[in-house]
Predict the structure of Phage integrase family protein.
Amino acid sequence: MSKFAKARREAAIEPLDLAQIEVVVPFSIEPLDFSLVTKKGPYVDVDLRRYRDGDSCVGIVGFPELIEELLLVVRRMIGPRPSSPGSVKTWISFRLPLLFMWLTRLKREIGSAPVRVAEFEDSHGELFKRHILELGGKPKGRQKQYSAIWSLLTEARGDDAPPLNWPSIKVAEEIEEHPDVDPRAVKALYNACKRVVDEAFADQRRGSAWLEEGVDPRDAEGERRTCQKGKRGAVKNPVWHDHANLAVLTKKLIRDRIVGTSNLDEKTKTKFDNHTGVVAKMSVGVTRQKLEAAIAPTPLEVAASILIVSMETGWIDPVGNIDLSSEWYILRGTVDPHALGKTETVVLQAVRPKTRKVVTAVGMAGSRFRSYQLIRFMETRTAFLRECLRERRDLLAAEPNSEASRCEMADIDARLKSPWLYYSSKCNRLNFSKGTEIAFVMSDQLKKLRQRAIASLKPSQKNDAELIAAIGRLKWSDMRDAFASHIYASSGNNIFLVKQALAHADVGTTRAYLRQRRQIRQRFDAFRDVVETALTEVDEGRSIDPTLLFLANNYKDFGESDRDKLFAYRTRMGMGCANPTDPEHHLAPNHPHGARCAVQRCILCRHGIVFSDAFEGLADRHADLVWLRRNTPPNRWLTSTLSWELEAIEYVRDRVFAASTERFVARSENRVVNINAGKLFVFDDPEVIGGR
């Protein structure tokens, strides 16, 4: 028995006058041995008695007064209901042992150590910093542990005590380089997710039809019929071979499993397995997995929907925090959510788990593959699962109150808010839905989605080893990088717009998302072209025209012949210009006075002149605009000046190049094919393709 325990027992037995004795250890309001319930359900037992009594196995001397003073602060920092067992382990297994092992070292080497929080001084900060740096490990990890101990002691000292001026641990900032995200790989994964969502819509329609037509096969036993020769069994019951009837029974099985009731006996379950199992004795032409998919969402369906939402919004963690019980969307331009047109927009809202701040994203509401429509679909798709969850909660509320039932009811309340519920017969009853554990679903199902994306590649892409490898490397977090690249390219390289879209507090964080090797390589190539153009102008003894630098930066094949055309009042497309220094304001609102036109959209300008050698340039421009029309939402295309430019080129083609229309169309279509194959780029700009 320890000295502390012995003294406490003697004090409890002998009736001593407390005013005449010295209190060595104050009475503890909070016990040092307690349990916590995390938000995910499991209990975590916490035992801090070794810091009071000492632990020879770990090498810690007991500091009873100090642990008593720190106890309330530690519990407050952990929280009344921590997010996971890992957050409790961080304090109990890492930070507190780090502090008390250092104090034990001080007592062994110096002969004294602080035994109360009031005894800590500024000089102890340098000693603790030296101790934590000697332990090794990652610099950021050391800094985080050091700061946590300082915060613990500062809060325990209270506002009346002088602050602890401890030196800080400075960590050199490392430039984070995000992995390359191939836009073609993201596009392939997106198409695979869309096909899974299409299957989900088909499963829902099939399930609704089955449930309307079917009856419980136990209530409608039909006349047995003789099976065909060669089939197992001599007779069969047609009622048990009807898919609609089996769907009704599947729904009851799912309800039993979630609610915890026993409305179906073991004989019925065995008979159901014999008809719908993987190795069914009497196959009915439909598997149990297909019947379950007609009743409730599958894990693959949830993962595909989450990926599409992440691609459109750039959200990763907030996707799992979409709360259907609160105002998770705001309609713009209409008040009827069921009468949304393709041009309507909607604002989505969610809470970032780490900061608890509300983040928003704006998207289109028309297509069923848009985030808003997908979440609404999942809300409808999971209605039956929510009904079962509420029944389960009602049963728990009717039972005697216990910590386990309260924990499960809190877990059910959290799941009812999430749109990402699914049912899987492989899970046990309590974990039928991983609605609050999105990371588990994504890590398990993303492999299948990547395989689907590779299997559905076009024949011309089947042998593209680089593309296949890029698809195989895709992670859920890469969708945020792809979203940042898309916004950056679509906004004319506006990093502040990307910062706003990603909800970053500091633009330095945004820069990390734009440090993909592919993007860095493209920027260096563009910079090299600009420098080479400027040096060529200097070597030739000519003044540097800003328009030349602009064209060299934005067009890969800009050369000496293009420069000669520009200075001869000819554009890159071969068209002439009657006044290249004064373009129309609606085409070039920011044109610098006296400089040559950098917009080069001569087909829409009143100064434009069509020459015969503009044939190839106009055909190439026509191909680029055709590609954009096919890959741009209709509402955006029809409201842009690009649609006017395409009509103008086709008008000139029919009037000026009427005799060569077939050759014009052939050249345009050939360029579109090369753009789709990745051999050419729209407007000779790789970022246009990367942004789609």
